[in-house]
Design a protein that fits this description.
Distance between the termini: 30 Å
Shape: globular
CATH class: Mainly Beta
Number of helices: 0
Largest sheet: 6 strands, antiparallel, barrel
Helix content: under 10%
Radius of gyration: 16 Å
Length: 111
């Protein structure tokens, strides 16, 4: 079922004294019609503390742009973008343009 995903992007124009991009004020936009699916979930156990890492894959509508430094807010949790593939087309002749788009993997960690 399609859902709304908020894309949060730092302002790339803000740099430090060495001219390295550090991000600035956050800009966000809500994208409707996204498909979200779990990819992996792992429980991290160490001697000091336990944690949980969840990876999801989001398929955005065609024409959506998501930067490599963006974060995604999905169902109230903030995920970090891990990587993405170029936009793809489902390739079904005579079908809606809604069948394809940007595919993004993102991770949320706790603990």
């Amino acid at each position: 079922m399609p859902e709304v995903v908020k894309v949060i992007t730092p302002d790339p124009g803000v740099v430090d004294e060495d001219n390295n991009p550090v991000g600035g004020p956050l800009a966000s936009v809500e994208i409707e019609g996204c498909l979200v699916a779990p990819v992996a979930g792992t429980e991290n156990e160490t001697l000091i503390r336990n944690g949980l890492t969840t990876t999801v894959q989001v398929i955005f509508p065609l024409g959506t742009v998501v930067g490599a430094r963006a974060e995604l807010e999905i169902r109230g949790e903030t995920y970090t973008v891990d990587g993405y593939t170029p936009a793809w087309d489902a390739g079904l002749e005579g079908q809606s343009d809604d069948l394809g788009g940007l595919v993004v993997n993102a991770t949320w960690s706790e603990g």
